[in-house]
Amino acid sequence: MILSVRDFAIGFQREGQNLVAVDGISFDVAEGETFVIIGESGSGKSLTGMSIAGLQPPTAFVSGSIRFKDREMLKRPDAELRKLRGPEIGLIYQDPLSSLNPVWPVGDQIAETLTAHGLASRAEARKRAVEMLERVRIPDPRRVASAYPHEISGGMRQRAMIAMALAAGPSLLIADEPTTALDVTIKAQMLELLAELKRELSLTIILITHDMGVVAEVADRILVLYAGRIAEVGPADAIMLQPSHPYTAALMTSAMISQTPAKQDLNAIVGGAPGLGAFPAGCRFHPRCPRARDDCKAIEPPRRKFGSVELACHHPIEAAMPLETARS
């Protein structure tokens, strides 16, 4: 395993209270796979992804363990974390326009990834930046390298972010909602590009998204988060074709826009996800769950084995096989 997360929790203090945003989650990521974390806004996806790279907010409190290549990432000194980000862990952020420096040319920003880690001289880094822009299929890469972020399109900015993330040769790429602001055609091109780069560079990818279309295209395994807890985790085919957790099934159903007749209301999950500090007792999904019973309201379900997946649910869909307790 390239990454092992155990009992990871992260939260914040508000008015003297400790409010936990991600609550004791555990999972592994195998080398070479595309591991997708999905869930509604506020589920803890981005907090988890950024914490893997040691980029949790400075005001946050954390506990548990995040081990990357057998090195503990939590509470590691900032100086050591900076050495890992770039050469070991690459990051693609959700909004490239706000993530890129508006007063630096794109090529200089990619080159800085190399010079900051002592991987190339300034001239070599500049040449490498142009090569990386070409590698991510940007036409006229020399022109784009000299352009400022606002002078290129959103699709090109996202490609430039990918070039920057991969310039120093990381083995793990964390992509936080990389296709959110892109139209359908550009999104498809971006997913194709990521798949191609994964093969060429032997990358492991952690993709954070709420877009089920993206999940269906690229995932090897899927982790479903709800209100800071794991709802379901397992192989992509099993989860996409026959979700066992009612929340996962609801996500799949609500995403089927193209299969909904024109005059029929779109499927939606009733209610909204609970806010920080407002998590209900028992199963956190029970106020919105059509399968909820009395035990769901009082007892938090342990994470258990169900076929090829693990899930936290007292009454999973198609519960025809015995449940075995798995790690929490």
UniProtKB/TrEMBL annotation:
The keyword Cell membrane applies. InterPro entries: AAA+_ATPase, ABC_Ni/Peptide_Import, ABC_transporter-like_ATP-bd, ABC_transporter-like_CS, Oligopep_ABC_C, P-loop_NTPase. It is a peripheral membrane protein. Gene3D superfamilies: P-loop containing nucleotide triphosphate hydrolases. One of its GO terms (molecular function) is ATP binding. Its main location: membrane. GO terms for biological process: peptide transport; transmembrane transport. This is Oligopeptide transporter subunit ATP-binding component of ABC superfamily. It comes from Mesorhizobium plurifarium. The gene is oppD.
